[in-house]
Amino acid sequence: MCIPHLVRISALSFALVAASQVALLARPIPAEAKIAGFGLGAQAYTFNRFSVFEAIEKTAQAGGKTIEFYPGQKLSTDEPDVKWDHRSPDEVVQKVKEKLAKHHVVAVNYGVVGARDEAEWRQVFEFAKKMGLYGITTESVQHLDIIEKLVKEFDIRAGIHEHAKRADDPSYKVWDPNYVLSVVKDRDKRVGACADTGHWATSGIKPLDAIKLIEGRVISLHLKERTEIGKQLPDAIYGTGVSDIKGILDELKRQGFDGNISIEYENNWDHSVPDVAQCIGFVRGWGAAR
């Protein structure tokens, strides 16, 4: 007589457990912050000659929906001595939230950031939680045990970023997607790579090949267009170089990527909004063509 009741309870319990597991797969980027299916906007470093407030404004002017902050940018022209990072007090955090809301830009990521120890890493993740971020970006592979622990606790992703290969520093290994894959492949799925396609190109790596290599571990991108592979060159507008931006977007869609794409445009520093807008337009056009 009681067996059906127990079965119903068991089924309900299973459903609740399954739902909780899905919830732990990491917070999504909201639909209103997406363009062509991707959380698309600027890395604030694109506007590093300006303040955080100006970076938000310029991201909106370019048509971006999201922003990835970096530590140390000045807050505003009114408060140039106030620096924005994970140590910012709540009143500064609130000012940034209000500025984001005013311009309809969603903060999704923060980096490239490092920390001294577990206490400071916790501060980083607490900051990310306050800001409602999808992820953080770092190169601190030596702290992956700490980072993975906090990824699980806060349900916030972590992407390993890479700069270009350093001929004078063989100990610098994160430039190589094979190495990044080797250090994240056995960890929580919310730990992976922040794919900087420009630095890969400088290191002689075809960005699309690297995206395919790290399938399932792409957390976010610093999506850059380059006009040659194997040279340190300024960034170019999407579709004008050899990075195969269309192929990368196609591959990300095939992989079911749901992270953020940050345009980190390291060129035309003082007047880059029109260039960033053209990059966003390229992605819009790609999405419309699908």
Distance between the ends:
56 Å
At the first level of CATH, the class is Alpha Beta
Summarize the helix and strand pattern as letters.
HEEHEEEHEHEHEHEHHEHEH
Mean of pLDDT? 92
Question: What is the total domain count?
Answer: 1
Radius of gyration based on Cα positions:
20 Å
Major beta-sheet overview: 9 strands, mixed
Q: Which fold does the CATH topology refer to?
A: TIM Barrel
Kindly name the structural category: alpha/beta
The CATH superfamily label reads Divalent-metal-dependent TIM barrel enzymes
* Beta-strand share of residues: 15-25%
Number of strands: 11
Q: What level of helicity do the residues show?
A: 40-55%
How is the secondary structure organized here?
Layout: H1 3-23, E1 34-35, E2 38-43, H2 52-61, E3 66-69, E4 73-74, E5 83-84, H3 90-103, E6 106-110, H4 118-131, E7 135-138, H5 144-154, E8 157-160, H6 177-184, E9 191-196, H7 197-202, H8 207-213, E10 218-222, H9 245-255, E11 260-263, H10 273-289
Parallel strand pairs: 2-3, 2-11, 3-6, 7-8, 8-9, 9-10, 10-11
Antiparallel strand pairs: 1-2, 4-5
